[in-house]
Q: What sequence folds into this?
């Protein structure tokens, strides 16, 4: 059996191992490996080892103190741990536990592909896609599937613009070539977009006297304009009515002059 190193709490060892700082699982900055997320554990452990100024031999010797008890037994009896070969032990841990993480990485990859990529996000998401694919599929070679999935995630405008460079006749070029082509095209399209936007802003009329109008001021302005228009319409109608009244009065005066003459002649 491997020596019992204190369950969930690391303690000084009686087997010639250097002492390590007292810690408990879950403490900030303290890695703890239970068999999942091996890559994250190794990154966190190496960061801690750098702060502790561990040598590679000490990294290999200490690592089991950051593992659950059942994993300590497994690692303790490996040749890599016995040789205190950190590079070999690290590779062994990845080979042994990476497959348990693959379903999670495949789900993350699927979610990334389904996102609506913007042109501005292509470079960042391309790096993330490459990382997730490697974690989800390991060393399995399926370049056509990888490239097809990548193109599916890209903005349609970018795929259309780079179509001639992506395809080699009826076939799609290797992923590495497609990745480089897409990166160049995306940067070109972003530069063109920024140049056009800048030119449009410079050509647009500038009115320094224009001030922002609040919704209340806008409503008041509309009301005043409506009242002014209604007043103008009423004035026009009044003027037309007065002209009509004058015409009626003239007709009445003329009729009063004509009627007495008719009576005198009769």
A:
């Amino acid at each position: 059996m491997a020596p019992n190193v204190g369950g969930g709490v690391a303690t000084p060892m009686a087997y010639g191992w250097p002492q390590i700082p007292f810690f408990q699982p879950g403490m900030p900055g303290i890695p703890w490996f239970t068999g999942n997320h091996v890559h994250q554990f190794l990154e966190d452990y190496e960061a801690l080892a750098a702060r502790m100024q561990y040598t590679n031999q000490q990294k290999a010797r200490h690592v089991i103190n950051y593992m659950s008890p059942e994993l300590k037994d497994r690692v303790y009896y490996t040749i890599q741990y016995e040789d205190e070969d950190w590079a070999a032990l690290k590779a062994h841990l990845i080979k042994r536990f990476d497959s348990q993480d693959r379903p999670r990485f495949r789900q993350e990859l699927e979610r990334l592909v389904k996102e609506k990529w913007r042109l501005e996000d292509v470079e960042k998401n391309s790096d993330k896609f490459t990382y997730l694919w490697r974690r989800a599929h390991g060393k399995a070679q399926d370049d056509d599937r990888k490239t097809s999935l990548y193109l599916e995630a890209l903005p349609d405008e970018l795929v259309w613009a780079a179509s001639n460079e992506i395809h080699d006749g009826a076939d799609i070029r290797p992923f590495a070539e497609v990745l480089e082509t897409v990166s160049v095209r995306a940067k070109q399209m972003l530069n063109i977009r920024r140049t056009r936007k800048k030119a449009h802003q410079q050509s647009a009329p500038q009115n320094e006297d224009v001030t922002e109008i609040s919704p209340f001021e806008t409503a008041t302005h509309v009301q005043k304009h409506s009242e002014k228009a209604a007043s103008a319409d009423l004035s026009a109608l009044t003027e037309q009515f007065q002209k009509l009244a004058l015409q009626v009065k003239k007709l009445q005066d003329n009729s009063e002059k004509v009627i007495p003459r008719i009576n005198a002649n009769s």
About this structure: The CA atoms of residues 48 and 240 lie 94 Å apart.
